[in-house]
Amino acid sequence: MDGLIYLIPAALFLGLLGLAGFFWSINHNQYDDLEGASYRALFEEDDIAEELEKKEKNSHKET
Amino acid sequence: MDQSLQKMFKIEHFVVEGLHCPKCIREIEGTLSENTKIKNARVNLSTQRLAVEWRPDVNTSVEHSEEVISALEKIGFKAFPFNTSQIDKEGEKTARSLLYAMGVAGFASANIMLLSVSVWSGDDMNETTRNMMHWVSALIALPTAVFSGMPFYKSAWGALKGGRLNMDVPISLAVILTCAMSLFGTYMQTDHTYYDAVVMLLFFLLTGRYLDQKMRRQARSVAHNLMSYKVSKATLLHEDGNTEDVASEMLSPGQIVQVIPGGKIPADGIVLSGMSDVDTSLVTGETIPAKVEKDSEVFAGTINLNGTLNIKITATSGNTLLDEIIVLMETAEQGRAKYVKLADRAAAIYAPLVHILSLSTFLGWFLLSNIGWEASLINAIAVLIITCPCALGLAVPVVQVVASSRLFKSGVLVKAADGLERLAEIDTVIFDKTGTLTLGQPELANFDDEDVTPFNLELAASLAKTSSHPLCRALIVACHDRNIPTIATKSEIYEEPGMGLKAMINNLEVRLGNREWCGIHASYLPNNRYSELWLSVKGAKPVLFCFKDRMRGDAHDVVGWFLRRKMKVIMLSGDRKDVVEEAAEELGLSRYKYSCKPQDKIEVIERMKANGDKILMVGDGLNDAPALRAAHVSISPSSASEISQNAADFIFQSQKLETVVRAYQVSVSSRRLVFMNFALAAIYNIIAVPFAAAGLLTPLIAAIAMSLSSIVVTANALRLNFEKLYRSHEP
Asked: Which of B60-64, B373-377, B512-516, B616-620 holds the top average pLDDT?
């Protein structure tokens, strides 16, 4: 039964880790749009990078 | 708007119409990312909204919002500014705190169950280990009971302070007493503790409550979006002749606004110049457009049909139509009896019963046996635990979640929390006519007349094609229905605002418009029943086209459905006698009232209410708003005026009226399921209480009983999804 001394805190720690993750996701609005995220996964990363680059350039021009 | 206030909010929200595919997200976000003033633009597909975050150095202003709207318009989306209201933010806050509470309860249940299972199955476990397990459980359960139980304690305390009992009172009591007893047991090193039961109870109840709240929030959010589509702009006319677009709310008396054909009149006022027809159907229920000229009075919310009008806004003297309606609504609100929710009614019977049972258990053991007060108390608390209202606490919210989501899919938004319960009780249905039983769109009525030949229709259509007047559009639709070609004439068409159209075709002057425009004497074919359009060709007999309001395709079926169920169906309309009588005959209705003012509608409702009738009011117009508020429960179509939508308990988004029947069916089924759930909970208690009172309850039995009863109640509620709903025969 000595193992319990380590096992119970380990179990609790893992549980708390999950809880912390859950809180993080609430605080970061992860549940606000449950439909959009599944589509966003399909976008090409390259396009986004390109667009961002373009935007950066534009804002540099302005400043 | 206050500039300093606006600067604080760097994020602006828009509602975007017709958002549903991934491509929309890309296009909108891509386009907006090119705007250098915008730091971040993000589309939310679930709420159909767009959040634009401005760069910190950019001052948000109306022009910038306009920029976003016009940018979106270029790629084919209609966007409207969206004001997040206080209610919205409050709702979000509650949802968040419920989620936190649920997360903590979930974590605690999982971990305590882990410990409990080993205690239950560990026959060879020595006492020290078992006590340690109990202490660890207590360490997890007690803070959880404090944190996750808070929503229940608060609500229970509120009810007790008000001298009422609600479902949260027995729940809070069970949670607190179970914790206390388990702590006492842990301290005394007994065999049994009930920490797992407490946290599980909280977890199940919070899940139900969260889903319930979420569903209602979703419905409200869609209703809110619908409202944003109606945001109206007014064109302000300055003395120097310049015009400026402002929001309708910003107008003040004395200002002059210009209203173009097809535009909504933004405020009550007097016509300074111009001549036109005004569609007042949304305000008064009257279907024939009213003619206005200089010095005529016009009302906010009515629609200008064909001529540009300059209107001087009159002082809000407190006796405009809108003021009158608001006063009526307030009176109606006060007259509405406070409805006590089913769950609270159940609690009022249930809570005293359980507490008496528990007390008698204590007294019984204490006085009639020699086990001592501690053991007697433990048995008494065991009764509280086993009767613990888990199933009862879930009985109502779980059914409501299933019912609301079922209705949501049929296009009905449930706005009021207890709307479904009230809808199930009705025995009388009152329909408004214009815009509710009818679509509020004109339809050619006299196609049987010998003058209305395909030739004449084609000729009229060749003029009407260029006009946006509703009657002209109706004429075009009538031609399409009869396969008559509608090609605009090549000759030049002249339009006289408020009068009609004319053109030279084959060297003959052809006119299409009102009686005066076509030069027809008032005594020729007199008509004050239909909206009319005349076609006159020089030298030929003039042709009259009559239009009436188009009935919703399934109005007859729906009215018949309620009549077959022995309900009283009544039509109250602000429209004139002939029109209402004809509609009543078409629908097979024997009870109706015409030329009703808003106060007439309320009077009818109050009289019937005094007779004990429970009334469902279905209406859309501004003139229905007080009646919607006065009735037991109310439904509005999404085309209704904003005030009516706010007043109604339900909103349906469909061209068909069958959704009203569906809402009723779902409400009746859900009431049946709620009662069934109450019965299941009662049966379970009748079986379990004797065991608990006899002192035979073990934590294992308590845990199994708790989860089992919750599962049974939830499964029962899900049966609502298999219910067959009404479908009208009309296509």
From this structure: B616-620
List alpha helices for B436-539, DSSP H: 454-464, 470-481
CB contact under 8 A, A39 and B25: yes
Residue entry with tokens 């929309």: B24
Structure tokens at B369: 């046996």
Decide the pairing of beta strands B428-432 and B615-618: parallel
Task: Quote the CA–CA distance of B623 and B164 in Å, as a whole number.
Answer: 37
From A16's Cα to the closest Cα of chain B, the distance in A is: 7
ipTM: 0.73
Local structure of residue A60 (DSSP, 8 states): H
The answer to whether B34 contacts A54, with C-beta atoms less than 8 Å apart, is yes
Beta pairing class for B412-414 and B500-505: unpaired
Of the candidates B591, B268, B635, B205, which has an alpha carbon nearest to the alpha carbon of residue B420? Answer: B635
Pick the CATH number of B3-84 from 3.40.228.10, 3.40.50.2300, 3.90.1170.40, 3.30.70.100: 3.30.70.100
Q: Quick one: pLDDT at residue B171?
A: 84
CA-based nearest residue in chain B for residue A24: B100
Q: What is the pTM of this model?
A: 0.79
What are the φ/ψ torsions at residue B437 (nearest 5 degrees)?
-75, -30
| Burial letters B458-476, b for 16+ CB under 10 A, else e | ebbbbbbbebebbbbebbb
Residues of B identified as active-site: 432
Quick: pLDDT tens for B322-342: 677 777 777 777 766 667 788
How many Cβ atoms from other residues are within 10 Å of residue B296's Cβ? 17
The phi-psi region of residue B443 (left if phi > 0; otherwise alpha if psi is between -120 and 50; otherwise beta) is: beta
Are the beta carbons of B126 and A1 separated by less than 8 Å? yes
Output the six-digit token pair for B625.
């708003």
Which is it for the CA torsion B657, B660, B663, B665, positive or negative?
negative
The CA-to-CA distance between both ends of chain B, in Å, stands at: 47
Comparing alpha-carbon positions, the chain B residue that sits nearest to A36 is B45
* Topology at the third CATH level for domain B412-439+552-653: Rossmann fold (3.40.50)
Contact list in B for residue A11 (CB cut-off 8 A) is 111, 114
CATH number of B233-324: 2.70.150.10
Burial call B179-210: b when 16+ CB within 10 Å, e when fewer: bebbbebbeeebebbbbbbbbbbbbbbbbbbb
Residues of chain A positioned with their CB less than 8 A from the CB of B111: 11-12, 15
Instruction: Write down the pLDDT at residue B665.
Output: 93
| Alpha-carbon gap, residue B27 to B25, rounded angstroms | 6
